[in-house]
Specification:
Blueprint lengths: L1 E6 L2 H11 L6 E6 L9 E2 L7 H10 L4 E4 L2 H6 L2 H6 L4 E2 L3 H8 L1 H10 L7 E4 L2 H8 L6 E5 L8 E4 L2 H13 L10 E5 L4 E10 L3 E9 L2 E3 L3 E4 L4 E4 L6 H21 L5 E11 L2 E8 L7 H4 L7 H10 L13 E9 L24 E5 L2 E4 L2 E4 L3 E9 L2 H12 L7 E2 L12
Parallel strand pairs: 1-2, 1-4, 2-3, 4-5
Antiparallel strand pairs: 6-9, 7-8, 7-9, 10-11, 10-15, 11-14, 12-13, 14-17, 15-16, 17-21, 17-22, 18-21, 19-20
Length: about 425
Amino acid sequence: MKVLIVGGGGREHAIARQVAQSKKVDKIYCAPGNAGIEEYAECINIGVMEFDKLVSFAKEKEIDLTVIGPDDPLVGGIVDPFEAAGLRVFGPRKNAAILEGSKAFSKDLMKKYKIPTAAYETFENPDAAIAYLEQAQYPIVLKADGLALGKGVLICNTLEEAKDGVKLMMLDMQFGEAGSRIVVEEFMTGREVSVLAFVDGKTIKTMTSAQDHKRAEDGDKGLNTGGMGTFSPSPFYTKEVDDFCNQYIYQATVDALALEGREFKGIIFFGLMLTEKGPRVLEYNARFGDPEAQVVLPRMKNDIVEVFEACIDGTLDSIDLEFEDNAAVCVVLASKGYPVSYEKGKVIKGLESFKEKEGYYVFHAGTSKTEDKIVTNGGRVLGVTAKGIDLKQARANAYEATKWIDFSNKYCRSDIGKAIDEV
C-alpha cells in the first residue's frame, strides 16, 4: 500500500512511525511533514488546507489510504473531496467534524442526548454574555466556539476577569472568528483524563487512557498551550470510571451523531473531568490528541493500518485493540517564550542519541532542515517520549532523555506526570 499522511507535527510523526510498522505498507508520503517524519516518509510541500492539491496528489500517486492528522483540515471538510474523488481517507466528514469545530454544537448535542457535561450557556452578543456573567458563580469558564489551537479556554476567578475574557474573545477577536461566539460553562473540579477512540460510524473502540498538561509552566500555571507533556495510562481512570463512560458517554456520543445524520468515522478524543458526581465531558476532538498520540501509539500492538481500514469499512467490531502492559511519558521541549513569542532557527543537537535506544522516542513537532542541520521551527519543538514498566520509571526515563537534546532557548516543564506521585 501507499499511504499519505496529512500534517506536520508531533502527532503526525507518531502516526507515521506507527504506519511504517505495518506489513501492508510499502511507501509513505507526508504533506507537509517535518524533519523527523522524513525518517519514515517522503515529505511533500503541500499545506494541510490545500485540499485540491492534496486530492490531485493522491490521485496522481495512486494513494491507497490518506490519514488526516490535524483539526483545521478536518473541520474545514477535507474528507469530503477525497471521498468524492473515490479515494479512501481516514477521518470524519465535515458534518461530523463539527463535533470539534463548534463547542456550542457539541454542548447542545450533549444536552439533547443527556451525555454528562458541565452546565453552560452560549452567547453571540458580548453585552448579553456580560449580563449573564454578572449573575454567575465563580470560578467560571469561557470557551471560544471554534478552533483556537487548544488555547481558546479561559478560567475566570472573578467577574472582572470574565469581562476581560469576553473583551479578549468577542471584541479584540484574539482567536479570530473562533471567538465570535462563546460558551460560558460551569467550572468543574477533579482529575482530567483523555481517552482516544476509533469509530466506524456505529462501533467505538477506546484506546488506553492518557493525561495531558495544558499550561505552559510548572504547577499548571501560565497560559494554555497545545500541550506540554502527557502520560499513559492514567492511574485515575479506573474500571469503575471506564464502565460509566462506556454506558453513558462513549457509545452515546456515536449514537447521537448517527441520529443527527452525522455519521462519524475516525478518531473521537474524549476530554473527561472526573468530578465528585462522576465523569463529565470537558471537550471533544475529532482527531488524535497531540501530545497524547505520542504516548498512546507507541504502546499499541495492533497494525494501525488495519484499524484505519476497519473504521472506513464499518468493520471495527471485528478488531480487538491491544496495548502493552506498561507506561509511557512524553515531555515537550519548547522554545522559551512559547506560547507568546519565541525565536526559531536554533540548531538542535543530540537527536542521534535516540537511534539505538529501545523504548525511547523523539517526535518532531516544530522542526525544519537547513542544509544538513535540523533547527527549531515552532513553539513546541520536540516530544521526548520514554516507556517504563510503570509510570514512575517511564517519567524518570523521559526526563533523563530530555538531557540528550540541546538547543538554544530549550524549555520544558519539570513536573509532567507529577500527579502519579499522589497515587
